């Protein structure tokens, strides 16, 4: 490989028996065994055992002095291990290196934790990130991440996509999430924004005849962080001209299938199932349902309109209200304590309670149903519940009744929670395989009660279904978008849409969103301009790379698939960014800190 | 290819004769030829000619209405062109499409300029960037850029390098260039900086045992822009452990050779010549000499110490002064006006004048030399000039005498200017081929007179040559670095170094740079920490992608190889970034504008 080493430690095998090799790596463990010293030497490919014999006094003296995480260069002969000293857990486990020379390339102070300690706090790990990254898990995660990106690049390259870089210093358009801003020194009082996505630029590239574009690029959103969010995240961003929605979905479905196959040898289903948004919300209360969970909602809104139980009938008769049942097969054995815990759980999502019925013996009618609410539901309603949910004796049915959003969020989360629970797994309610899904036919607009206006469900550049253009202003709630999300095991891997390529349709959407002509021109004038010069039909998709790799590696957090992530307080514990800066720097940027400003009486 | 089209316009050839094809593209030109309408339809692969016949009345009506840059879908039969209608400049020039259907996918308003107009102002081009990008030149530039990056990725992937993303939101370390800052909302009064390069992170990745890293990534410097600078630029950033300087250079020399071969079929020399920094400065006054120019300096400092001509003897005797001659073969015919122009030219670099001697007949001694200064140079000096420069009759010798920096800059630039001039090309002083070069053995430090201290020539993480560690503090000016630049035709393509991997050497360098322990800890504590945990010997290199592609495409400016560049005022004329932002946004970021602050008496 080089003048310093001939092989990677972890790749030395019995094929090299008898050969002299030079290896560079770190002392993973050092053991004094009577007269011999054993060193497990580690590099990025794994471990190899080095044996140091006291007959070579000088070398042995060096070996005696080394400690964990010293960086060494070792030369020696590849020798077979004998009998029970063979370690079948290691690729190099059938051999060891009988050292003839050991050189300390760099010493190490004692490490603050053992690299194989699996119970480190995240603060410890992020503060000592360099050591944390030496752990096999992090090495594997980042190498898998790389493999995923290379598979994506190869796949897209073969199809004629080309990677084109779009600007990092761009224009602030305060739609959607909060922008990260960058003050301009040359243009006093003005600011760049870091891109939330290359959305508009990739559309411009389509108008500019690049035909097929991709980019694996950083995006930025200054939002309050949750477990699966980072201030900067990486998007596999794609756009193409002259393809239909179906063709775009097929193309990227193949891509994901190939990525899973070529990196983890996982066969995803072919084709992915497709479900429209309305069905997904109806059955699972979610636009990214976890299809591994084998339970679904039964809509009972109609059934509950005339029952005595006010919680149900109130929700059933309310505008935008909804009543659903969630049948839990074999749930009748669930102890009261577990039901109470679920009641608390749905409270997180705004549910005011969690009604349930245990189906002891359905043939007996109300008699056979065990529940505080049975007496407030008339016989017809009870019969309908059993019929529509398909409940069998021994099952339990949970109910949600409230505004649709509360019901969907609460019972949707409950469905997943029960499915993933020990009970759910035992009861066969969880299918532990990869379950991808396309969710399609999203609404164009969501109604935002707070601001009393329609907002774009995806983004304002999403095209409506053919024929829906005329309803954009007259009946926005009925407009369906050519939008699609790829969902895997309850996570959104990516999403996209056919874009609007006609200026007059784009202007209509802006009007539907109450963005007037002047504001549209100010913020998106360059897009409206571009659309007038023969913009082609185009569409695309963006995948969240961090999330895909988190899923593929089975990591708890996207921080485990990012080399140098931020904490949930948006800080880098390694470098202490963000930090204070010189007054001179602020002056050059024509800004000052608010707390540093002079007080005015 | 898809339901909308079967082929790319530019790729339809006689192999498809008789077949019906569907094409999507833009109207490049439309010509009414008597009864027929010809449309040159353009997509990213090129042009194809479409013929519309009035016998198909409906289709013909559409064809009559289309104008330049309309986006069309055309279906028709591939038909041979006859006789002199064949166009050998086009890949599709032997055929035309006899249209059976023409569909307008999108109309276009009249374009503000013809796409094939080569005399557009940069302002026009950047304002209408989307149309500008449709021009074949820009299409080719960005596709070549992509090919270069894919070749780089394939090459590095084969060698086990892996792409690891480093943070965009990082710590401000006001060394080197000015940082772009990003105010933190969550951490009031603190700022992220956009990275000037991933230097420290890639070193940390080596300490973390990733062994071989690369990244093609954006870097940011808030400097005043020159023709070849952008606020954000793209670096091919590489780092490896356990390789020597020579091995690293070999590896990346191969990479560049393969990139040139596989994209442009250009054979660069193998191996690249290597020159040390001192020689480069001595012979060319530059650490990135343009080796195509076949002229070099002759150092005359010693020769001029005792001449009467004060300009020469003063510089020769000054500390840090230098006198050089630049022999211009056959320069004796140069008219006075051209010499005057060069005198003005070197003034840009601080030279106070430009002495010269025309060698009319050297056998005659001073008699045969034509110059205002000859009378102030004694015979010995004149003889030495002729001898050392190797001047022949008919040559001209220019002189530079001043502080070494002024001489190097001025006469170095003059050398290139003359070499590239019509005169230089006629006189055979310019070899029009690719001339790569490694410049090595840079000094560790430069002395900065203004601040009266030593600064790092490359950066403070560069390792000194073996044995030079002890001079870092005692004789910094004598320390040579393990640093190397790759130069091509007078441009620096990339540069790198072996890095310091021992904490005590790093601390010594900080002390040599007058960075005290406290400041070092504050700014670079995380690096010093990491070096203590068995950091491996490591080094690397970074290439400027924009510049490489600019050279490869023969572009005038790096703006021609960037899809959406900024102007020299750091503005995007397309989107009008940077722009003003809402007061609310500023308040959330805990900053205010200086010009908006209340006046205090």
Automatic annotation (TrEMBL), chains A, B:
InterPro entries given in the database record: Aa-tRNA-synt_II, aa-tRNA-synth_II, aa-tRNA-synth_II/BPL/LPL, Asp-tRNA-ligase_1, Asp-tRNA-ligase_1_N, Asp/Asn-tRNA-synth_IIb, AspRS_core, GAD-like_sf
Annotated stretches, region: Aspartate: 199-202
MF-aspect GO terms: aspartate-tRNA ligase activity; aspartate-tRNA(Asn) ligase activity; ATP binding; nucleic acid binding
Domain of life: Bacteria
Marked site (Important for tRNA non-discrimination) residue numbers: 33
GO CC terms of this entry: cytoplasm
Subcellular location: Cytoplasm
CDD domains the record matches: AspRS_core, EcAspRS_like_N
Residues binding L-aspartate: 175, 221, 458, 499
Matches recorded under Gene3D superfamilies: Bira Bifunctional Protein, Domain 2, GAD-like domain, Nucleic acid-binding proteins
Keywords of the record: Aminoacyl-tRNA synthetase, ATP-binding, Cytoplasm, Ligase, Nucleotide-binding, Protein biosynthesis
Signal peptide limits: none
PROSITE patterns noted in UniProt: AA_TRNA_LIGASE_II (PS50862)
Residues binding ATP, per UniProt: 221-223, 230, 492, 544-547
EC number: 6.1.1.23
SUBUNIT field: Homodimer.
PANTHER family: ASPARTATE--TRNA LIGASE, MITOCHONDRIAL, ASPARTYL/LYSYL-TRNA SYNTHETASE
Protein role: Aspartyl-tRNA synthetase with relaxed tRNA specificity since it is able to aspartylate not only its cognate tRNA(Asp) but also tRNA(Asn). Reaction proceeds in two steps: L-aspartate is first activated by ATP to form Asp-AMP and then transferred to the acceptor end of tRNA(Asp/Asn).
Family: Belongs to the class-II aminoacyl-tRNA synthetase family. Type 1 subfamily.
Name the UniProt record assigns to this protein: Aspartate--tRNA(Asp/Asn) ligase
Gene that specifies this protein: aspS
């Amino acid at each position: 490989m080089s003048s310093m080493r001939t092989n990677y430690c972890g790749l030395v095998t019995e094929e090299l028996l008898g050969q002299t090799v030079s290896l560079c790596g770190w002392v993973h463990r050092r053991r004094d065994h009577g007269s011999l010293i054993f060193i497990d030497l580690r590099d990025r490919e794994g471990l190899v055992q080095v044996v140091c014999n006291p007959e070579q006094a000088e070398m042995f003296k060096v070996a005696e002095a080394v400690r964990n995480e010293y960086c060494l260069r070792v030369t020696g002969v590849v020798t077979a291990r004998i009998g029970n000293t063979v370690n079948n857990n290691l690729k190099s486990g059938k051999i060891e290196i009988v050292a003839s020379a050991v050189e300390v390339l760099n010493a190490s102070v004692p490490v603050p934790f053992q690299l194989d300690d699996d119970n480190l706090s995240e603060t410890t790990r992020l503060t000592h990130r360099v050591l944390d990254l030496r752990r096999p898990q992090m090495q594997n995660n980042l190498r898998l991440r790389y493999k995923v990106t290379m598979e994506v690049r190869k796949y897209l390259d073969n199809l004629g996509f080309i990677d084109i870089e779009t600007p990092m210093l761009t224009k602030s358009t305060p739609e959607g999430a909060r922008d990260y801003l960058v003050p301009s020194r040359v243009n006093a009082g003005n600011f760049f924004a870091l891109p939330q996505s290359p959305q508009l630029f990739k559309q411009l590239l389509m108008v500019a005849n690049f035909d097929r574009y991709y980019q694996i690029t950083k995006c930025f959103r200054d939002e309050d962080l949750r477990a699966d969010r980072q201030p900067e995240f990486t998007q596999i961003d794609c756009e193409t001209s002259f393809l239909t929605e179906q063709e775009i979905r097929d193309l990227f479905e193949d891509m994901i299938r190939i990525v899973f196959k070529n990196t983890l040898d996982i066969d995803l289903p072919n084709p992915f199932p497709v479900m429209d948004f309305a069905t997904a919300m109806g059955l699972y209360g979610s636009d990214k349902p976890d299809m591994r969970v084998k339970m679904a909602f039964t809509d009972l809104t109609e059934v509950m309109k005339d029952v005595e139980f006010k919680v149900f009938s109130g929700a059933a008769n309310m505008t935008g209200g909804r009543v659903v049942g969630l049948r839990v097969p074999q749930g009748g054995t669930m102890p009261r304590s577990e039901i109470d815990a679920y009641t608390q759980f749905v409270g997180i999502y705004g549910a005011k309670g969690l009604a349930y019925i245990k189906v002891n013996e359905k043939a007996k009618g109300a008699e056979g149903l065990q529940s505080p609410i049975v007496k407030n539901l008339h016989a017809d309603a009870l019969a309908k519940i059993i019929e529509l949910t398909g409940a069998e004796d021994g099952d339990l049915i949970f109910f949600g009744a409230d505004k649709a959003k509360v019901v969907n969020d609460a019972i949707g989360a409950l469905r997943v929670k029960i499915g993933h629970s020990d009970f759910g797994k035992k009861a066969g309610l969880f299918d532990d395989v990869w379950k991808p899904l396309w969710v399609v036919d999203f609404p164009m607009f969501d109604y935002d009660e707070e601001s009393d206006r329609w907002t774009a469900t995806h983004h304002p550049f999403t095209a409506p279904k053919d024929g829906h253009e005329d309803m954009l202003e007259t009946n926005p709630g009925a407009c369906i978008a050519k939008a699609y999300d790829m969902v895997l095991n309850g996570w959104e891997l990516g999403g996209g849409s056919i874009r609007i390529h006609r200026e007059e349709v784009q202007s209509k959407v802006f009007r539907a969103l109450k963005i007037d002509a002047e504001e549209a021109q100010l913020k998106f004038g360059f897009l409206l301009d571009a659309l007038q010069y023969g913009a082609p039909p185009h569409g695309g998709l963006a995948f969240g790379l961090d999330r895909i790799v988190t899923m593929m590696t089975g990591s708890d957090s996207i921080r485990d698939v990012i080399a140098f992530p931020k904490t949930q307080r948006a800080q880098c514990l390694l470098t202490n960014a963000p930090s204070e800066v010189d007054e001179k720097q602020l002056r050059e940027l024509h800004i000052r800190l608010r707390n540093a400003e002079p007080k005015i009486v």
